[in-house]
Amino acid sequence: MQFTSLAFAVFLPLVFMMYWAAPQKARIPLLLLVSYGFYLTLSPGYVVLLILISMLTYLVGKHCNQKTLIFGIILQIIILAFFKYVGLLPGMFQNIVIPVGISFYMFKSISYMVDVYQKKIEAEEKAIPVFLYLAFFPDLVSGPINRAGNLIPQLKADKTFDESQAVYGMRLILWGLFQKLLIADTLAVYVNRVFDMSEAFLGISYMIAMFFYTIEIYCDFAGYSNMAIGIARLFGITSMENFKSPYLSVNIQDFWNRWHISLSTWLKDYVYIPLGGSRKGKIKTYLNLLITFLVSGIWHGGNLTFLVWGLLHGIYQVIYRLYKKCCNVRMPKILGLIITFLAVSCAWVFFRADNVMQALRMFRYMFYDMDLMLAYRKFGMVKKDLFMLVAAIAVLFGFDIANRKVDVLRQMDRLAIPIRYTIYLIFSIVILAYHIHNGITQEFIYFSF
Amino acid sequence: MDRFLFRLFLFVFLLGITVIPINVMIDPYNVFHADEIRDNGVEPNKNYIKTKYVIEHQDEYDSYLFGSSRAGFIDVSKLPDGSWYNLSYSEGVPAEQVDTLKALIVNGEIPKQIYLSLDNISYLVSPQYHEKQLYRKAFPFTGSLNEKIGFFTSYLDTITTLESLSVIRNYEGDTKDLQRRMYSTGCEDLNADIVFDEENKEAYWASYYSPRVDEAIAEIQEFCDICTAHDIKLTVFTNPMYVTTYEKSINNEYLVFLERLSEVTDYYNFSGYNRISMDDSYYFETSHFTPEAADIIMDIMLNGGNEDEIVIQGFGAYVTKDNAADFINTLKFQAYTTGALIYEGE
């Protein structure tokens, strides 16, 4: 049951009404039950694993010392590595399916155990809040990787219905649907065409596919995150922000403060800083950066392309640090923005490609044939799709630019009700019209991580 | 909370009244008007409409003709021993015909007999190509709520509905005649006044045609198995394709298809170089044969054909596993003689 499915459109209102109608004491068990039910529709064979990891997390937290912590972390890394990389082995192992959300809930589990050990938070006396922390259905599948210190107190707190929170949540959901259904799913059709049959394309087609994928993955993942955060708001929960206009970053360091923030902060707190961070000299800092981004690549999967992608970002970080140290020349922001966007886009080619050779081939022939009209015809794109995409992407970047200064969705409170409803209606009608017209619902990209 | 819920329901209501009425009223594919189909210039979803009609009028019919639109000009009212309905529709392919048959059976209608018409479309068109085409979407046969909702929701396609207005506004149709045909025999207009265009004899061919013989044969096998399981008398035949379309098809595995077909079912053959396929007067264009041609092939299936034509041309031949090799050689020999196929030695 995906967020964009009809079944979820029935599931969510029912759960919402049950939650707010239930007495305070019943809300946590209700949410937990509902979360397991939600997970059953996605990964029925692995609910038991989720429960076992939750039990492990709770028990390590209750009896937290160095040995239990190391045991808890290593056991989960082994399980995670098994599911992520066993598919690389020949034979029957290739049929083993990765449990949905495993990368996300295991990272939440590790962060809980470490935070308890480091006494940043108290271990939970009762098991249910820990179980719900890991299984909370809005962020269970693809994040954000909320910290226990943020989420568990909110889950346990007595809450009354806050209309402004709920309205804000609905706006986030609508914005997320706009990003996912209108932009990401439409771009995916053309991106898949090029990457799935890359040898039938050349030149500028590769360049267009690269930029299309750059926007697709942003809208897909940020769209999902916005929906997840919006859904959590309906239950009075404030999730951590996951994306902050990342393609308006003026350097690669800025980019990672704005892209998949819950993962990048997790890696900083639980990999980079324990390795020594930037406290042990220049060389060690650069090495720690490379290792951290390699871990990020490995986290995504066993394909060499993810490793290369992670390594590239590590190298970008090192280059940027060297540039900051060596060059006193302040780069104009617009130049920094362009360079960062191009660097990130190039790395996405490896992320999306089936293998490293395919990615390298695309770069090799990217400037081979610059016939834009031929590329347009080969893409099979129709004019109305092109106009819609241009308009939607313009709205996307307009929103992101405005959102750097003010919370655009919050500012909508200042508009008169008829204007607000007109905006909601226009967005909803356009999203619905194109979604039904294209008849395509692509699985969320981060579903498989 | 009450205010929030009220505003939410109001919004959903406003969204609903903006999207639903326009699509239901205009309904270019007649899915919401399946019981009162209108001739509006847009190809209706006959797959859905016809299947729905026969399921709701089970007492009136017990025998069916399945096929692509080429079988649409076969006058089923002339067929004996049953109450017939023509279930053909645009580019109907075996996988969809299996679904239609299952839909009938699941809804309590077990046919007494079936004619199944096949030709190059049967193995050149992938059913997946049709999945997103609103005028070909299948009747949601399991009847699950999810399937029905998904089916009807796909017709709330405001963009397509608005685009269809340019066709609908400029078209003058004959709704009465369309309704008469759809709600009686299901046949196309047997009095259509279309003259074959002598300037255009090119093979009828779509860019998405791609041989998938194995898959098509498996689908036809499934159709045959369902008929056997339910004691349905099944007669399979191949259509008389216009000569240029036939020639292009035999260069795209059509003879392979015919040979493989004999392994799963016996069938009557009307493909090849014969007195129908080489006579323009029996065609509207290079795809659809006329009702007169249809009468001829039906007569042969019911009363037997001409021995010479069967032996020399394979026209009207009853092909079985035992004689398939000889039959295919007959067609190959014809094709070598005309140069449509190049002889490369055995």
Structure description:
The complex is a heterodimer of chains A (449) and B (346). Helix content of chain A is 71%, strand content 0%. Chain A is mostly helical. The model of chain A has no long low-confidence stretch (mean pLDDT 90). Chain B is α/β, with parallel strands linked by helices and 346 residues long. Chain B has one domain. Chain B has helices at 2-26, 46-56, 94-106, 121-124, 127-130, 145-153, 158-169, 175-182, 213-229, 243-250, 254-264, 291-303, 307-313, 324-338, and strands at residues 63-66, 84-86, 113-118, 233-238, 267-269, 317-319. In chain B, strands 2-1-3-4 form a four-stranded parallel β-sheet, with helices on one face. In chain B, strands 5-6 form a two-stranded antiparallel sheet. Chain B is elongated, with a radius of gyration of 22 Å. The interface between A and B is medium-sized, with 20 and 21 residues.
Summarize this entry quickly:
The complex is a heterodimer of chains A (449) and B (346). Chain A is mainly α.
Jot down its keywords.
heterodimer; A: 449 residues; mainly alpha; B: 346 residues; alpha/beta; 14 helices
- The DSSP helix count of chain B reads 14
- Name the beta content range of chain B: 5-15%
Low-confidence runs of chain A (pLDDT<50, min 5 residues)? none
Q: What value does the Rg of chain A take, in angstroms?
A: 22 Å
How many discrete structural domains of chain A? 2
Oligomer: heterodimer
Radius of gyration of chain B: 22 Å
Most extensive contact: A-B, 20 and 21 residues
